[in-house]
Design goal:
Length: 145
Amino acid sequence: MNTILVPVDFSDVTPRVVETARAMARAFSARLVLLHVSEPEPDFIGFEPGPMAVRTAVARDFKKEHQKLEEISATVAVDGFQVLALHVQGPLVEKILDEADKQQADAIVMGSHGHGALFEFLVGSVTSGVLRAAKVPVIVVPANV
């Protein structure tokens, strides 16, 4: 195992996901690819890029997310792990699967929020989508232990 993809969403389960990935990376001398996928920017009708307030808010949120990702990356790198931090924007499941292919990941370690079957049936789940379509093993770290 050479590369482990670690999608993070900065929720309560993120520290446990990162710790699980670190343990695996330590065991296999693998490189970690931390990935945060931001929601796509809202579509605007016409050719105008949208109100300045919306663009400013999106840019501010993107910058905050990038800073959080860099903080996690720095914490992991201190322990001597080879870490790549990626921040992309787009449909979550699609981007996670794309990066798994691009980075030639041997496994994906991600969290689950445990909303329940009805929620997943009605709304869907990023973790479920990745589990269904991934070409590599997916290790799911539960939110509630």
